[in-house]
Amino acid sequence: MSLFDSITELSGVGQKRAEILKQLGILNIEDLLTYYPFRYDDLESRLPSQTDDGQKVTFKGVVSSQPTISRFGYKKSRIAFRLLIGHDNISVSFFNQPWLKEQIEIGKEMAIFGTYDAVHEALKGQRIIHAENDSLAAIYPSNQAIHQKTIQQLIENAYAKYADQINDIIPRRLMLAYRLLSRKKQIHDMHFPDSAEDAKLARRSAAFEEFFIFQMRLQLMRISAGKNRGREIEYNSEILNGFIAKLPYSLTDAQKKVIQEILLDLKRPIHMNRLLQGDVGSGKTVVAAIAMLACYSAGLQAAIMVPTEILAQQHAINLSNLYQSAGLNLRIELLTSGLKAAARRQILADLESGEIDIVVGTHALIQADVHFHNLGLAVIDEQHRFGVKQRARLREQGQNPDILAMTATPIPRTLAITAYGEMDVSTIDQLPNGRRPIITKWVKSNQFDNVFDWVKTQLAAGAQVYVVTPLIEESETLDVQNAVLIYDRLKEELKPYRIGLLHGRLTNDEKQQVINDFSTNRVQVLVTTTVIEVGVDIKNATIMVILDADRFGIAQLHQLRGRVGRGKKQSYAILVSDPKTQYGIDRMEAIVSTNDGFALAEKDLKLRGPGDVIGIKQAGMPEFNVGDPIHDLKMMETAQQSAIEITSQSNWDADKENAELVKYLSLTMYRYKDFD
Length: 676
Fold this sequence. Notes:
With 676 residues, the protein is of the alpha/beta class. It has 22 helices and 21 strands. Helix 5 (183-191) packs across helix 6 (196-227), helix 6 packs across helix 21 and helix 8 (253-267) packs parallel to helix 9.
C-alpha cells in the first residue's frame, strides 16, 4: 500500500467517479488526504441572544409549529416552521429542500445550522445537524458532479485505510525548530478537528509544508539551471566603458549595481536566467542596451522581444540613437508582423547570416522561420505579458542564449519569492537624478471644467498633454468617456492647438505617425487609449489627464502616469473619476498617495490579491491550497530559507533524514507539470 495508490483503490470509486475527482485534482490517495477544507462551520449550539446578525450558527431547540411548504417559480420552494430555544421562539426557513418536511415534527428536538437574521429573529437554514458530538464541520471545494458528503466520506475511508502509510516528509530538525505537527496528526486534524484550536494548528503545519515543498521545487529548478551549461561571453570592457562614458547622463548607483550583476552572469559558464525589475522611468532600457552591447563586443547577436509594435519601434529608435551618439555602428533591425513580405525575407536572411547585430521584435521573433546566426542574449521586455511557452520558444531560437527578462511592473517581495523564486532578480530602486516626483490629483467629474481651464494655461506655457480614455467609441453598456468623442470636443474647444488621436484600431503606420507628430510637437494634445501604457517616451509631455480613472487598476494607472515625468520639468497626473465602490476609492487614494511603484504593488496585492497583479497564471505559478503567500509572508520566507539551506549541502539527497522528502518530491512531479 502507498499514498500514491490510485483513487480507485477506495471502495465506491469506479472510473466514472474517478473522472469526477480528477476534475478536482484528485488522482491518488495522497491528493485526497491533502484535499483540505477551505473552512469549518461551527456546529456548537448557541442561543439567539449570543448571536450577531448575519452570523452562521447552530441553534438547538424544539419544533413548535407545523412545517408549511410554499412553492414559487420553477422548482422553487420554501419550508417554514418555528423553533423554541429556551424563551425564544424563532422562525426557520429552508429553501429548495422540500424533502426535509418528513424530518420536522412538533415537539421534536432538532439542531439546525444556518444564517441568523437578528432583526427578524429568523434562521435561514442550511442543514439539519444529526451528529451531536461534532463541533466543527469541514467544508470542501466541490463541483456539481460530487456532493460535500461524498468527499467527506471518501476522506474518512482513505484515512482509515491508509493512516499508517502517512510519514513525515519535512526533516525532523525543521519540525522541532518550527513546532510542526506530525504529518499524520496534521492530516487528521485538518479533516476531523476536535476544536477550532486543533484546526488552526493543523492548518499552520499544512501551510508550512505546502510552502516548503514549493520552495524545494524552486531550488531544484535553480540547481538544474546551474547544471545547464551556458556560454562564457568574453565581452570587451573597453567598448562598454567607452559607451558608458559617452552617455548624456550619469548612471545611478542602482543601475551600476545591476549592470555588474548582469555582466558577471554573462561571463560565467552557466545559463543566465535573470529578472530585471525597476519602476517606470528608472532606466532599464540603457541597462539592456549595455548587456546587448556586451554580446556584440563578443561577436554575438542579441534580440529583444516586446509585446507591442509601438514599443518595438520605440526601442529600435532609442537603441540606434544611444549607440550612434557613442560613435558605435551596430546594425539594428525591426521584426514585426507588419513588415512587408520582401522586407521580412531580407531581414530573416541577414539575421541567419549574422549581418544583423540586434533585432527588436514582437511575437514575430518566435516564428518557426526565424533563425539566428549566433544568438548570445535574449531580452524580454514587459515579460509578464508573455506566456511560459512563448519565453521558452525565444530561448530555443538560438544556441541556449542567456535570458534577461525585464518588467516595469514592480513585483512585491511576496511575489518575488514565489513567482520568480527560480530566477535571479536585479532591482533598480532609484530614479535618475533631476527627476521630479509627478504630482497626482484625483478630482470628481463635476470638477472637469476646472481641470480643462488649467490645462489651457499649461498649453499656453508650452506643455504637451495626454488625455487617456478607457474606450475607443461610445458604448451602450458602459457609461465611460471615449476617445473619439473627447477628440471631437477638444478639437473645437482647444483651438488653435492641434489634437491627435491614438488607439488600437489604427494601422501600425498610422500609430507611428501620430506618435511622431506628438514627439515633434506638431500635435500638442494626444487623446489616446491605453496603447501608450508602455513604450512612449516624450520628455516635453508633462501632463496626463486620465478620464474614468476608476476603470483602471493600480498597476495600469501607475504605468500610464509613467508616460509623463520623463524630463526635468514638473509633471502632473490628473485622475478624473467617480468611483462607486470602496475598492474604487481605495485605488484612487493609493495612486495619489505615492509615486513609489513598489509600495503601490504591495497595496495592489492587498486590495486585489495576487491573481492579476503580474499575471501569475501566465508565469506558471501553481495556486496555494492552504497557505496564503500574502498574509503568511514570513512563513513563506522561512520555508524558502529552509529549502536553500538543505539544497546547498552537498549530497543532501543522500542524507537519511531527508529520505522521505526526496521520495515525496520525486513522486509529486505531476503537480508541477505546468511549472517548468
